[in-house]
């Protein structure tokens, strides 16, 4: 019979009383992806709790909880302290910890296991099963190894449901396959389909209706217990009958609670809600009977299960078992209900250890039996998953097991001690002469009467004084006259000595043969328990109340009522239960006659009244015997009633004749008694002989069973030998092929060595030469006969003094060495020393290879020299570039300084009242300003060209409306009243043309093209600005009617300093030929292009600029503030510093015209001294000043607390981006390039001083 554990492995665990399922999810490599898929399909209000156990590195923090949280709306928590389990929550194991559950809580403890022992999932599944019983579901997902397979079996044993990911769906299928191989998996599904199935299982479980199960050890039922017990009994009987018909196994003697729990689990899996529906499902699905049988025979066990009990067995039983017998007497152990063999092998290990401890050489034979053929098949292989490390101590693991991949196999010497066989305790005969019987956690699932029969059978099978080892929830109290306790706490008993008549092999219950099935069906499986004669008696007395007793057909008393004792008397000698021996002598004859008459029929027989004494008041007794058949127990017996009545006065007193008759009858009765005693002795002797024959027959049957098992083992061994022989033939064939392949490989290697032409030498650990290639003789002076000589004795042509030391270091396995070494002449070699490894991966020497790298070395030398030259040239070019930048900066400053002075003086003239009234003077001032602007643009263009050519021009791009820029420039041109009218043509859709560009550089492109058109067009001719677009580009055309271009010059018109048809131009306005070159380079910097077209000289030109459009939804930057009128700096205090007195005076005068208060200094040191006590709204300073430049000045001014936040403007001719960046870093808020426009300067002051919004 399969072992059925009744209590958890850890007695400290307390059952949970949660009313919702707890789903344990185990995964390893590739499991996180499967877990994400699982929770993506699981609703957040599913009503279940989930616990995720992963194989995590103890050295790193885990982010598994965050990954899972992304896939589910349920709260996800990493367990680092005790937490209560709540529905619709997800809990994740933390690194370096073991996760456990107890009484509705999750707890963590340090995982004190060596790295590589992956058992966290098994340990948690075990706790989950023992605590939550049938509320425990488990899921095994992708992973390597076999973790989860053992714990999964415990889940199913306790009534839970097991799910495993389809191996094809798993990234790593080792864990799913190991779980499936246990045969304990209910459902195999892809990870994405599991959530829906779990929801269906949970929904079905809540709808199940079954009769109430009286078992306080179980948690609250998932379903309701509203089923009608009376109506359910026939359905239950029919299910068991169907199971017996399909599988040949009868479970009528199992406790109803056990049967109902097993059937309830199948209801969950199959989606049925009551016994009627499941019976129909069972009839319609042939495979369900096998699945139900598997649940009824759940074989779950482990090595040394219940450690305390096994330790007690080691202390109290095994020493006596080993020491009491002779060396030639075999130690015989019977493991009944061995399941997959862990218990049997545990016993074999313990006995072997005890024998070794006492240095005894006795033979050991462990008989391991079970009803489950599949479990026995697993047990015979002796192969178990890695999870057994949680049950087997390391010393026993090393002594009795061999590691094979991801499994452990029991060593052959242990397997040979164990004989596995199929055996049914309820029908098959027992083994004999057993020293120890182990039957743990099996009897509790059987009816009490069947338990007694099995215990009697065990007593019969044991030698005198043999031991019985039961489960923690079992007892031998029902047969306490047969066993005495050795350790009652751990359920270890010893067989008592009883008389041969008291020894019984137990009743042989009907086996599972189909010949008895029809009879069982007709009888509807009548209960097989022994009747309670008290119940029989009380039912018989429903009709009579006088003193009475129940006897069997032989007259033996079965039960007596109160008051019947006055009709009985005890005689000397051996006590008897026969009524005729115990009844009063005066009643014996009448009773015998009445009993005889009653046995002949079915009606009650009443005797004549019998006097019990003498005299007038003598009592008279009337005996009535009623044949009675008790329907519930199907037992036949006789009811004997003694009824007293008053004597009849009319009857005469007994006379002499009656006395004489009485004496005769008494003598006859005595003779009959003697005869009966002789007959009884003869019968007893016959019974003893019969029992001895029965015992001998049973022993013969047991021996026959052993022989049959041995025959099966021999047959199995024969098949194994045949299989091994076939394997040897295959191996021999493969070996032949390997030899041929080796020959080919040897040929390949010979040709490879010859073709590579590499000098190679093999030496052993003592540097003796083993083998070398022909090329090696060019370096070492050796011949083929030198094989075996020391390499140190051979001269060579290498500059390698450390050769011997390096070879020894490599032979020790310390390192792999590579060196570049010189040789004779200009030769260089790459010396590579590697360990020489044998087929067993043992280092037996060193392999020395020398590769000629002379050409590579020469090439590297040339490359090195070239790199040095390049580095020198790069340094020189960087110096030249820096000098050029310095030149441009100085040139810009020197050119712009006089322009700035001219610009400022022109601005003063423009504002003088006397000048404003003279038209010629105003025009002159305007001409001066335009000339200054023109020269400033030429300087800027030259600098921009230089920056572009050196790659230093940086665009400040932002979303801008090209149409707005063009319209702004057009408005400026109109205000200047040029002699050539400029007409603007915009797109008809009037949509903004948004491009990603630098506003300043875009204006520069448009102004250069427009200035060219104005410069080379005759007065009165029209110039057109045409703006259009397609889906991806904005297009701007500048069309004039000027001097035109020669078609031959169109190819180089955009070249630097290039001019076309200068003879046709107005030489007074002739340029330098850099404008169009700058236009092309700026357009290309924006990702666009520019082209020119002309029909010929005198026919005008068309310049077209194309720029890529960007997202039209982007908004352009808001425009700056509008210029203000004079007096805009009223009340503003300005500190002005410039080393040029001319510039200083002009700027001071201009700023004072705008009502500003200006403190001007040409010496930075004086300005710094004055600023110590002064308070200013704005600071304006030149940069290039002698003594202290503007950068040093602003840093010094920032040192004063009251000037730390005062706005500052740098006004300089250094306009490069690097100069602007440096100004910002030193403390300036604005950087303005000379010559600066007056309005631009005033606007900057206003913005910084807060006069206008900035």
TrEMBL record:
<feature type="domain" description="CheB-type methylesterase">
    <location>
        <begin position="22"/>
        <end position="205"/>
    </location>
</feature>
<dbReference type="InterPro" id="IPR036097">
    <property type="entry name" value="HisK_dim/P_sf"/>
</dbReference>
<dbReference type="InterPro" id="IPR022642">
    <property type="entry name" value="CheR_C"/>
</dbReference>
<dbReference type="Pfam" id="PF01339">
    <property type="entry name" value="CheB_methylest"/>
</dbReference>
<dbReference type="InterPro" id="IPR050903">
    <property type="entry name" value="Bact_Chemotaxis_MeTrfase"/>
</dbReference>
<dbReference type="GO" id="GO:0032259">
    <property type="term" value="P:methylation"/>
</dbReference>
<dbReference type="InterPro" id="IPR000780">
    <property type="entry name" value="CheR_MeTrfase"/>
</dbReference>
<dbReference type="Pfam" id="PF00512">
    <property type="entry name" value="HisKA"/>
</dbReference>
<dbReference type="Pfam" id="PF01739">
    <property type="entry name" value="CheR"/>
</dbReference>
<dbReference type="InterPro" id="IPR035909">
    <property type="entry name" value="CheB_C"/>
</dbReference>
<keyword id="KW-0175">Coiled coil</keyword>
<dbReference type="Pfam" id="PF03705">
    <property type="entry name" value="CheR_N"/>
</dbReference>
<keyword id="KW-0808">Transferase</keyword>
<dbReference type="InterPro" id="IPR001789">
    <property type="entry name" value="Sig_transdc_resp-reg_receiver"/>
</dbReference>
<feature type="active site">
    <location>
        <position position="55"/>
    </location>
</feature>
<dbReference type="Pfam" id="PF13596">
    <property type="entry name" value="PAS_10"/>
</dbReference>
<dbReference type="InterPro" id="IPR029063">
    <property type="entry name" value="SAM-dependent_MTases_sf"/>
</dbReference>
<keyword id="KW-0949">S-adenosyl-L-methionine</keyword>
<protein>
    <submittedName>
        <fullName>Response regulator</fullName>
    </submittedName>
</protein>
<dbReference type="GO" id="GO:0008984">
    <property type="term" value="F:protein-glutamate methylesterase activity"/>
</dbReference>
<dbReference type="InterPro" id="IPR036804">
    <property type="entry name" value="CheR_N_sf"/>
</dbReference>
<dbReference type="InterPro" id="IPR003661">
    <property type="entry name" value="HisK_dim/P_dom"/>
</dbReference>
<dbReference type="GO" id="GO:0008983">
    <property type="term" value="F:protein-glutamate O-methyltransferase activity"/>
</dbReference>
<feature type="coiled-coil region">
    <location>
        <begin position="665"/>
        <end position="731"/>
    </location>
</feature>
<dbReference type="GO" id="GO:0000156">
    <property type="term" value="F:phosphorelay response regulator activity"/>
</dbReference>
<feature type="active site">
    <location>
        <position position="147"/>
    </location>
</feature>
<keyword id="KW-0597">Phosphoprotein</keyword>
<dbReference type="InterPro" id="IPR005467">
    <property type="entry name" value="His_kinase_dom"/>
</dbReference>
<feature type="domain" description="Response regulatory">
    <location>
        <begin position="1133"/>
        <end position="1249"/>
    </location>
</feature>
<keyword id="KW-0489">Methyltransferase</keyword>
<dbReference type="InterPro" id="IPR000014">
    <property type="entry name" value="PAS"/>
</dbReference>
<feature type="modified residue" description="4-aspartylphosphate">
    <location>
        <position position="1182"/>
    </location>
</feature>
<keyword id="KW-0378">Hydrolase</keyword>
<dbReference type="InterPro" id="IPR000673">
    <property type="entry name" value="Sig_transdc_resp-reg_Me-estase"/>
</dbReference>
<dbReference type="InterPro" id="IPR022641">
    <property type="entry name" value="CheR_N"/>
</dbReference>
<dbReference type="GO" id="GO:0005737">
    <property type="term" value="C:cytoplasm"/>
</dbReference>
<dbReference type="Pfam" id="PF02518">
    <property type="entry name" value="HATPase_c"/>
</dbReference>
<feature type="active site">
    <location>
        <position position="28"/>
    </location>
</feature>
<feature type="domain" description="CheR-type methyltransferase">
    <location>
        <begin position="224"/>
        <end position="475"/>
    </location>
</feature>
<feature type="domain" description="Histidine kinase">
    <location>
        <begin position="890"/>
        <end position="1111"/>
    </location>
</feature>
<dbReference type="Pfam" id="PF00072">
    <property type="entry name" value="Response_reg"/>
</dbReference>
<dbReference type="GO" id="GO:0006935">
    <property type="term" value="P:chemotaxis"/>
</dbReference>
């Amino acid at each position: 019979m399969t072992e059925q554990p009744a209590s958890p492995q850890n007695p400290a665990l307390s059952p949970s009383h949660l009313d919702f399922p707890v789903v344990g999810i185990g995964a390893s490599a590739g499991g996180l992806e499967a877990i994400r898929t699982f929770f993506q399909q699981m609703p957040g209000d599913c009503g279940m709790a989930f616990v995720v156990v992963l194989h995590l590195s103890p050295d790193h923090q885990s982010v598994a909880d965050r990954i899972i949280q992304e896939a589910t709306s349920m709260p996800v928590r990493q367990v680092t302290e005790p937490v209560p389990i709540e529905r619709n929550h997800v809990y994740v194991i933390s690194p370096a910890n073991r996760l456990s559950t107890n009484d509705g809580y999750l707890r963590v403890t340090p995982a004190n296991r060596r790295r590589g022992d992956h058992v966290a999932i098994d340990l948690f599944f075990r706790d989950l099963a023992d605590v939550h019983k049938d509320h425990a579901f488990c899921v095994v997902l992708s992973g390597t190894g076999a973790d989860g397979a053992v714990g999964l079996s415990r889940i199913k044993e306790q009534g839970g449901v097991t799910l495993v990911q389809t191996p094809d769906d798993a990234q790593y299928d080792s864990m799913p396959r190991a779980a499936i191989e246990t045969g304990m998996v209910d459902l195999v599904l892809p990870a994405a389909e599991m959530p829906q199935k779990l929801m269906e299982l949970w929904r079905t479980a809540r709808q199940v209706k079954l009769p109430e199960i009286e078992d306080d050890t179980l948690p609250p039922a998932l379903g309701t217990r509203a089923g009608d017990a009376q109506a359910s009994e026939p359905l239950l009987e029919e299910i068991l009958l169907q199971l017996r018909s399909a599988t040949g196994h009868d479970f009528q003697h199992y406790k109803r609670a056990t049967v109902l729990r097993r059937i309830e689990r199948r209801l969950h899996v199959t989606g049925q809600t009551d016994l009627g529906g499941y019976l129909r499902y069972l009839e319609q699905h042939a495979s369900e009977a096998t699945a139900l049988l598997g649940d009824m025979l759940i074989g779950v066990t482990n090595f040394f299960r219940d450690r305390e009990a096994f330790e007690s067995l080691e202390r109290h039983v095994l020493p006596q078992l080993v020491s009491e017998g002779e060396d030639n007497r075999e130690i015989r152990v019977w493991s009944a209900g061995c399941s997959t063999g862990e218990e049997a092998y545990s016993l074999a290990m313990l006995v072997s250890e005890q024998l070794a401890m006492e240095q005894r050489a006795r033979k050991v034979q462990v008989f391991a039996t079970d009803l489950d053929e599949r479990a026995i098949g697993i047990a015979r292989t002796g192969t178990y998953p890695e999870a057994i490390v949680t049950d087997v101590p390391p010393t026993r693991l090393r002594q009795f097991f061999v590691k094979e991949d991801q499994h452990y196999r029991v060593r052959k010497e242990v397997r040979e001690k164990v004989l596995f066989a199929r055996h049914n305790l309820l029908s098959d005969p027992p083994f004999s002469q057993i020293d120890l019987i182990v039957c743990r956690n099996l009897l509790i699932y059987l009816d009490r009467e069947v338990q007694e029969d099995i215990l009697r059978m065990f007593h019969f099978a044991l030698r005198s004084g043999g031991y019985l080892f039961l489960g923690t929830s079992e007892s031998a109290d029902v047969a306490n006259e047969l066993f005495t306790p050795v350790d009652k706490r751990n359920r270890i008993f010893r067989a008592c000595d009883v008389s041969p008549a008291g020894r019984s092999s137990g009743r042989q219950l009907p086996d599972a043969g189909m010949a008895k099935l029809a009879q069982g069906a007709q009888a509807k499986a009548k209960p097989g328990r022994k009747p309670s004669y008290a119940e029989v008696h009380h039912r018989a007395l429903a009709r009579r109340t006088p003193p009475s007793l129940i006897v069997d057909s032989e007259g033996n008393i079965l039960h007596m009522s109160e008051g019947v004792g006055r009709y009985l008397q005890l005689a000397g000698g051996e006590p008897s239960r026969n009524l005729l021996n115990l009844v009063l002598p005066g009643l014996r004859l009448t009773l015998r006659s009445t009993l005889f008459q009653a046995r002949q029929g079915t009606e009650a027989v009443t005797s004549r009244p019998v006097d019990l004494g003498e005299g007038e008041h003598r009592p008279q007794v009337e005996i009535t015997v009623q044949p009675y058949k008790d329907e519930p127990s199907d037992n036949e017996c006789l009811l004997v009633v003694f009824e007293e009545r008053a004597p009849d006065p009319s009857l005469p007193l007994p006379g002499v004749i009656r006395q004489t008759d009485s004496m005769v009858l008494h003598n006859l009765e005595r003779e009959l008694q003697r005869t009966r005693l002789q007959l009884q002795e003869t019968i007893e002797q016959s019974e003893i002989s019969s029992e001895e024959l029965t015992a001998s027959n049973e022993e013969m049957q047991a021996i026959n069973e052993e022989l049959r098992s041995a025959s099966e083992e021999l047959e199995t061994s024969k098949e194994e030998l045949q299989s091994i022989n076939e394997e040897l033939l295959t191996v021999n064939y493969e070996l032949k092929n390997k030899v041929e392949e080796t020959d080919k490989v040897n040929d390949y290697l010979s040709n490879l060595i010859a073709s590579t032409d590499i000098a190679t030498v093999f030496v052993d650990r003592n540097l003796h030469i083993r083998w070398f290639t022909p090329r090696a003789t060019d370096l070492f002076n050796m011949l083929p006969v030198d094989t075996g000589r020391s390499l140190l004795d051979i001269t060579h042509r290498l500059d390698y003094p450390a050769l011997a030391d390096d070879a020894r270091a490599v032979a020790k396995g310390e390192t792999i060495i590579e060196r570049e070494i010189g040789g004779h002449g200009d030769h260089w070699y790459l010396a590579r020393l590697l360990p020489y490894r044998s087929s067993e991966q043992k280092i037996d020497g060193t392999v020395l290879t020398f590769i000629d790298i002379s050409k590579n070395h020469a090439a590297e030398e040339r490359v090195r020299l070239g790199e040095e030259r390049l580095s020198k040239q790069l340094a020189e070019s960087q110096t030249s570039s820096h000098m050029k930048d310095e030149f441009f900066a100085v040139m810009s400053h020197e050119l712009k300084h006089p322009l700035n002075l001219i610009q400022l003086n022109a601005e003063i003239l423009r504002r003088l009242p006397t000048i404003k009234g003279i038209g010629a003077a105003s025009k002159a001032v305007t001409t001066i300003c335009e000339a200054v602007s023109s020269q400033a643009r030429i300087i800027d263009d030259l600098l921009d060209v230089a920056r572009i050519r050196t790659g230093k021009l940086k665009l400040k791009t932002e979303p801008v409306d090209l149409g707005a820029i063009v319209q702004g420039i057009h408005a400026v041109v109109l205000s200047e009243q040029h002699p050539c009218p400029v007409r603007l043509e915009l797109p008809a859709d009037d949509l903004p043309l948004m491009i990603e560009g630098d506003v300043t550089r875009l204006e520069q492109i448009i102004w250069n093209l427009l200035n060219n058109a104005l410069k080379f067009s005759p007065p009165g001719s029209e110039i057109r600005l045409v703006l259009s677009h397609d889906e991806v580009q904005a297009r701007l055309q500048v069309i004039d009617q000027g001097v035109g271009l020669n078609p031959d010059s169109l190819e180089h018109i955009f070249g630097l300093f290039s001019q076309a048809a200068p003879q046709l131009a107005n030489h007074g306005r002739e340029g330098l030929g850099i404008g169009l070159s700058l236009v092309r380079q700026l357009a290309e910097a924006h990702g666009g292009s520019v082209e020119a077209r002309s029909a010929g000289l005198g026919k005008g030109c068309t310049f077209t600029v194309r720029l890529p459009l960007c997202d039209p939804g982007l908004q352009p930057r808001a425009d700056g503030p509008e210029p203000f009128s004079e007096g805009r700096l009223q009340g503003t205090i300005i500190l002005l510093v410039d080393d040029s007195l001319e510039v200083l005076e002009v700027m001071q005068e201009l700023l004072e015209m705008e009502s500003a208060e200006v403190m001007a200094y040409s010496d930075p040191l004086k300005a710094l001294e004055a600023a110590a006590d002064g308070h200013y709204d704005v600071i304006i300073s030149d940069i290039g000043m002698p003594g202290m430049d503007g950068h040093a000045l602003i840093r010094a001014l920032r040192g004063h607390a009251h000037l730390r936040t005062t706005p500052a403007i740098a006004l300089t001719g250094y306009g490069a981006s690097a100069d602007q960046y440096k100004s910002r870093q030193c403390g300036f808020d604005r950087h303005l390039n000379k010559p600066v426009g007056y309005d631009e300067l005033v606007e900057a002051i206003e913005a910084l001083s807060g006069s206008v919004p900035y």
